[in-house]
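Researcher: Going back to the complex we discussed earlier. I've cleaned up the inputs and rechecked each line, so this should be the final set. Can you rerun the prediction on the complete assembly and write out the structure?
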Amino acid sequence: MSRASQPTQFTENVYQLLRQVPTGRVTTYQALAEAAGTRAYRAVGQAMRRNPDTQRTPCHRVVASDGSLGGYAGGPKRKIACLRAEGVLVQAGRIINFRDRLYSDFR
DNA sequence: CAACCGGCCTGGA
DNA sequence: CTCCAGGCCGGTT
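Model: Rerun complete. Updated structure for the full complex:
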């Protein structure tokens, strides 16, 4: 059993930003990265995967910049179910009304 | 230092 | 417009 590595500052920062995303909304890896002050959108994905508490950090609300689902540790099906439970509909692997659901007004 | 990522962008078919 | 392939940045391990 590998023990959970301590989250770095960057990771914590991303988590905090993600928690600002209200239910029923989604954000993108890039938006989080830029809000964190960097362009490491891939690092964001890594942080999401390493996310210790999926309930606290709604990593399922993070999608790709083009409205596609992106990845998910539990599988895409899981992600869709989570989003759907929050009122975000997904069809053909893409967020419906993505642009309207997108939240990137981080502060 | 090298490899790994839950991505993004661009170009071509 | 959609789909595929390659190249790329930045952070973590």
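Model: Worth noting: Residues 28-30, 33, 39-49, 59, 62, 64-66, 69-73, 79 of chain A lie near DNA strand B (CB under 10 Å from a C1').
Researcher: Good, that matches what I expected from the previous run.
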